[in-house]
Task: inverse folding
């Protein structure tokens, strides 16, 4: 692709790809050219002038960070003439710099020291103009001391260029120049989202992470345990603790960037309240137990229930937080060991409708194109995804597409989410009217002949059904339903349809509805009708939530699928698994998370095994969940903390966190990546897979593996999409499934040339209203979601004080008009009620919420939004309607006020 | 931490009418700021927020520009702007005494504004009228060969 150029630096002959700069090429070859204001991924800045070199035939001393290599170029780096100038520059920097190296936490890890050492600088001959410390300590995670700042601009440029945030900038000029948030105010009051990119890039110790006090003694490459972005992490450890976190610059998902959770939110790993021994509840209180006792008890109770009521009286919630290997073992325990298909996991609550919808339309339920491809799309349609908060790293690719590559961004979201800042068009549909919007867009595309007829002819079927369905769905029809002006709907349709590479990104704003599957099908229709699928930077892209929700689905933690999305009801497939696992298997589909809860309530499910999930906060209509779980004869919870669900258990088993185990996880790109042990497990905690194997063995289905690597090898034999994946192959970089054999390079994007199911299928998706609409008793629509600073039920993030400080419980976002009508002011504690429950929350009055809609995150047990939500489900995917229910608000107690809100 | 981008509704009518005259290109920033300063008198943080929202750029970028150019004022200025030259020629001819006299008379330091917003005092590098040194400029009117007594008289005439 890129031609190799040959050139020399100080007589050493090197090669570089075309377009590479001298500095980069030197770096790649391990040659040091002093530099301070350049960092990977940022444009050359030319401020420090330390990277100057001499080049034969070029006048003066050009900066190597901004000079491209040409063939036959002769570069002089470490020569007196150049070093003399560099020395002068460096002495000027040092003259201004407090020489407190011995007490500086960047000592021995400072780029200024590197430069000075290279140039042999002992002290500065210039008069010292040392400034006193100018400290901003306001951010909970990092500190800034401007007296050490060398004004390289790396922090401001990474904040603007890499993150698209722009919280800080260089203010003033001359000697007054300084890094500042607007108004020179504390950075905490700026738009900074604490991603720490600037801290990572700062060459000196002007910005440092508060928790980094000692340098690590070992570094382990692994994958972040929070979200489906799947960022590569480097965990620096010392004495069994994580003391430093860096993004892995070689990881394809994040290129070194991280969000606040991945970088600063890992305190939970060494939290003092981790579960460290098995617990058995006796007379209502937990007592510590040995593993022998606990495992025996679990096995006995499972066997008793199975004997008395049959295997289908048992059910298991597997975990999107656990590894692929653990999910495989979990479903194998239930299917082969116990004999039921009653296994499911929280994907039911987030993307079940994606799996159902995309499988029907395309034949595969995963994200069609990887996150990084957004960068090269020319139109991105984001709907039902608050990307900057829920998928921060994906958002970076979307922002880059807009800011650097000029892509058009359409955001269809009721809320004024952060991404709207970059949007060409923001349309605000009423929650629950997505299908009407998409149908109207398709109506425009068909009537204005903007579709891709060749694609429709060649690669799809059922277009007649679609045409009939949308024939009357004009923008004028959709306007009163969605609340979006008809001409805006037309504009959105045209922008998307005219794109060369149009890409759709969506998330739970689409899936968590009683019409979730229809929403997904309608998006698939939209992509197919315009031919925007099966090519790079196109596709229909469900952004997956948990670090391993993709993997948990892939590995069969679903009641109707064996690993690799193979139907449990297909006798041929069942026969293969019966041979592989050596036992007869149940021919019937199992039941889903929501159905399991109902069955527990009615007494049909007697025993439940929960691995790493917290339905007592994550599921809709919590009062009902609580009742159902109390009704169980036996509940076993395997987790790293005493969660709200674990409190209700009969036995609690302590498990290992992501930083304490080996295995693989699959991110939203379908990329299977390694998780590696960085620190020892606390107390007697054990790997989830090992616990599960012991239980299987005790109930008469012996399982034992030497390592997760061996489990993955077994997976490769039963799940064709993972057929070519092994620890060995993903040691350096992960592979994207399908990867059927050992020589297959993996599949970056799906459906090239042909859909998984052959032809893409259009589905008629007539508009249906949500299960519960606002009425006079409950006049507001409640929609739920997430914040950047917390993860799910906050089991992990609440252990990081800084995250709690930035985002304390429990905000509710209300439009100023609705607040005024209810006599509510910003900061008031208010009472929020639905037909299912009442909670208290702090009013955040903001026009981020549209009129008539309030927003809450589901993270907080202090004011659990899911006490309000409705458990009405999508008829196909059985996903609950978290995004729409009716509520009313009123001031709780006028004396209560929080100063945070 | 501000968790959201809330569109800044401005409460200053002048500001809104100024904004309305500018397209949303980033290149409009400096003319827009100049116009705001002409109409509002200075660049408040509210103006910066409004300019940032109008041009869809980070507020920090606006702040960077406003603080880079000395022509922009971050605080409300006095009705009368008193600028005393501190350039070399004026310095040699006693500009120091003039600024001290002015400061003492108004009770504020250079760079400050009186509480009643009647006067602001500023030091300036050189007006380019060195022949008249020391020079003081009040509301665009240039006074040459100023003495401390004369400076005070000029101020007193304005009150
Ligand atoms: S932490 Fe991130 S958002 Fe905050 S100033 Fe640094 S780069 Fe910008
Ligand atoms: S704070 Fe660090 S990164 Fe930012 S300009 Fe100063 S030295 Fe450079
Ligand atoms: S939480 Fe997600 S975006 Fe943040 S560092 Fe982890 S994987 Fe990356
Ligand atoms: S690294 Fe090239 S000028 Fe600073
Ligand atoms: S030095 Fe005062 S006008 Fe030139």
Result:
């Amino acid at each position: 692709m890129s031609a190799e150029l040959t050139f020399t630096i100080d007589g050493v002959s090197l090669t570089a790809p075309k377009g590479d700069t001298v500095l980069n090429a030197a770096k790649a070859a391990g040659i040091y050219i002093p530099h301070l204001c350049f960092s990977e991924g940022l444009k050359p800045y030319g401020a420090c002038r330390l990277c100057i070199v001499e080049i034969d035939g070029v006048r003066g001393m050009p900066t190597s960070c901004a000079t491209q290599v040409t063939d036959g170029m002769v570069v002089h780096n470490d020569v007196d003439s150049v070093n003399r100038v560099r020395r002068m520059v460096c002495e000027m920097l040092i003259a201004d710099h407090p020489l407190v190296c011995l007490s500086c936490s960047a000592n021995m890890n400072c780029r200024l020291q590197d430069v000075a050492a290279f140039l042999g600088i002992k002290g500065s001959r210039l008069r010292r103009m040392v400034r006193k410390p100018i400290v901003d300590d306001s951010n909970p995670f990092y500190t800034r001391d401007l007296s050490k700042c060398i004004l390289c601009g790396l922090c401001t440029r990474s904040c603007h260029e890499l993150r698209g945030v722009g919280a800080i900038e260089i203010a003033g000029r001359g000697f007054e120049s300084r890094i500042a948030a607007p108004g020179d105010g504390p950075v905490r009051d700026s738009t900074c989202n604490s991603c720490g990119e600037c801290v990572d890039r700062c060459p000196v110790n002007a910005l440092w992470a508060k928790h980094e006090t000692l340098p690590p003694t070992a570094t382990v490459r692994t994958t972040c345990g929070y979200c489906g972005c799947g960022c590569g992490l480097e965990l620096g450890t010392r004495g069994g603790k994580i003391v430093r976190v860096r993004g892995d610059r070689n990881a394809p998902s994040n290129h070194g960037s991280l969000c606040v959770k991945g970088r600063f939110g890992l305190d939970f790993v060494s939290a003092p309240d981790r579960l460290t021994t098995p617990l058995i509840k006796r007379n209502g209180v937990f007592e510590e137990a040995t593993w022998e006792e606990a495992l025996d008890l679990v096995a006995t109770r499972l066997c008793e229930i199975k004997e008395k009521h049959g295997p289908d009286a048992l059910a298991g919630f597997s975990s999107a937080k656990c590894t692929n290997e653990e999910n495989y073992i979990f479903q194998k325990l239930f299917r082969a060991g116990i004999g039921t298909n009653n296994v499911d996991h929280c994907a039911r609550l987030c993307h079940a409708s994606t799996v159902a919808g995309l499988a029907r339309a395309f034949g595969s339920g995963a994200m069609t194109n990887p996150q990084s491809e957004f960068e090269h799309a020319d139109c991105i349609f984001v709907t039902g995804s608050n990307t900057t908060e829920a998928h921060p790293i994906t958002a970076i690719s979307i922002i880059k597409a807009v800011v650097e590559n000029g892509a058009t961004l359409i955001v269809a979201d009721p809320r004024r989410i952060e991404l709207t800042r970059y949007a060409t068009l923001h349309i605000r549909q009423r929650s629950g009217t997505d299908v009407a919007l998409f149908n109207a867009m398709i109506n425009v595309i068909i009537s204005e002949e903007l579709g891709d007829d060749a694609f429709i002819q060649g690669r799809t079927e059922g277009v007649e059904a679609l045409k009939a369905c949308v024939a009357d769905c004009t923008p004028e029809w959709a306007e009163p339903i969605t609340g979006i002006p008809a001409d805006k709907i037309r504009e959105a349709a045209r922008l998307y349809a005219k794109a060369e590479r149009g890409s759709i990104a969506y998330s739970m704003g689409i899936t968590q509805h009683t019409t979730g599957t229809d929403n997904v099908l309608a998006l698939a229709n939209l992509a197919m009708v315009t031919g925007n699928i099966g090519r790079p930077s196109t596709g229909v892209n469900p952004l997956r939530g948990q670090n391993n929700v993709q993997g948990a689905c892939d590995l069969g933690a679903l009641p109707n699928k064996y690993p690799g999305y193979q139907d449990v009801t297909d006798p041929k497939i069942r026969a293969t698994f019966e041979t592989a696992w050596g036992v007869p298997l149940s021919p019937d589909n199992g039941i889903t998370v929501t159905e399991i809860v109902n069955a527990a309530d009615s007494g049909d499910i007697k025993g439940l095994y929960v691995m790493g999930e917290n339905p007592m906060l994550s599921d809709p209509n919590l009062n009902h969940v609580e009742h159902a779980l109390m009704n169980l004869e036996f509940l076993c919870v395997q987790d790293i903390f005493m969660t709200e669900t674990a409190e209700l258990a009969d036995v609690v088993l302590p498990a290992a966190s992501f930083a304490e185990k080996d295995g693989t996880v699959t991110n939203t790109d379908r990329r299977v990546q390694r998780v590696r042990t960085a620190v020892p497990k606390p107390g007697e905690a054990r790997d989830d897979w090992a616990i599960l194997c012991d239980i299987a063995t005790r109930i008469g289905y012996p399982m034992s593996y030497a390592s997760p690597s061996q489990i993955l090898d077994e997976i490769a034999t039963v799940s064709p999409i993972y057929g070519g994946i092994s620890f060995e192959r993903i040691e350096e970089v992960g592979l994207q499934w399908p990867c059927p054999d050992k020589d297959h390079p993996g599949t970056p994007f799906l459906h090239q040339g042909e859909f998984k199911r052959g032809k893409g299928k259009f589905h008629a998706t007539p508009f249906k209203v949500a299960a519960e609409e606002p009425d006079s008793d409950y006049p507001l629509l409640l929609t739920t979601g997430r914040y950047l600073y917390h993860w799910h039920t906050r089991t992990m993030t609440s252990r990081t004080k800084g995250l709690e400080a930035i985002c304390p419980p429990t905000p509710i976002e209300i439009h100023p008009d609705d607040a005024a009508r209810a006599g509510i002011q910003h900061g008031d504690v208010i009472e929020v009620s639905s037909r299912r429950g009442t909670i208290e929350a702090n009013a955040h009055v903001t026009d981020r919420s549209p009129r008539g809609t309030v927003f809450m995150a589901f993270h907080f047990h202090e004011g659990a939004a899911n006490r309000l939500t409705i458990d009405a489900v999508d008829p196909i995917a059985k996903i609950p309607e978290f995004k729409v229910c009716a509520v009313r608000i009123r001031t709780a107690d006028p004396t209560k006020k929080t100063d945070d809100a | 931490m501000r968790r959201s981008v809330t569109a800044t509704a401005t409460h200053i009518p002048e500001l809104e009418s100024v904004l309305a005259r500018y397209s949303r290109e980033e290149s409009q920033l400096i003319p827009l700021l100049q116009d705001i300063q002409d109409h509002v008198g200075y660049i408040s943080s509210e103006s910066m927020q409004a300019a940032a929202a109008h041009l869809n750029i980070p507020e920090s970028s606006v702040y960077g520009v406003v603080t880079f150019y000395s022509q922009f004022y971050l605080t409300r200025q006095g009705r009368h702007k008193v600028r005393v030259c501190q350039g070399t020629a004026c310095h040699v001819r006693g500009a120091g005494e003039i600024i001290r006299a002015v400061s003492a008379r108004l009770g504020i330091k250079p760079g400050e504004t009186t509480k009643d917003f009647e006067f602001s005092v500023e030091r300036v590098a050189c007006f380019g009228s060195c022949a008249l040194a020391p020079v003081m400029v009040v509301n665009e009117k240039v006074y040459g060969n100023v003495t401390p007594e004369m400076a005070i008289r000029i101020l007193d005439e304005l009150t």
In short: The interface with chain A takes residues 1-7, 45, 48-49, 56-64, 67-68 of chain B (CB under 8 Å).
